[in-house]
Amino acid sequence: MEKILITLGFNLLSLVPILFWLAFFLWQDRKHPEPFKWLIKVYLSGFLMGPIIWLLESMLLKNAALFDGAQMLQRSLWLCFAGAIIEESIKFLVVYLLIKRNSFCDECLDPVIYLVTGALGFASLENIVAVFSLAANKTNYLEFLSLVGGRFLGANFLHALLAVVIGTAWGWGVKRGYS
Q: By CB count within 10 A, which of 41, 56, 120, 150 is most buried?
């Protein structure tokens, strides 16, 4: 019972970096905030797209045998690049399909806010999976803090940053009426 409570506590704490980044980006849109209902829908869609992304990435890894003759560095770089394309494409597609007809997506910053929210939903699932992985290995508190701190400055920030870049391009399209 104690292990379950500790794991649950670690999972809740692993969401703190996500809440920080989400609050930071939502604060940028404080003059014309997006409806909370839509933000929740997009966040949950980001959370739920994780299994789809992992399925596609696992298929990619199974087919990595194509690179048997390649050098290790070349193979690793290709897998990272292809994995990133899969993640960012699926995250964009899911959020775009959910938001494209939304009348609230009317400002240049709105696609950025929605994409960051979806990306952080996905990052939340990654954090939870990472914490369960640590719990299964009987980790200590210092390893947990290292994981959360590393994901805060690494993966969580990178998910948000890429969503900003893609959302900015989408936002320019919204501004020009191409959405």
A: 120
Q: How far apart are CA 131 and CA 16, in angstroms?
A: 13
What tokens appear for 158 in the block? 């990178």
Give the whole-angstrom CA distance, residue 161 versus residue 50.
Answer: 18
pTM for this predicted structure: 0.82
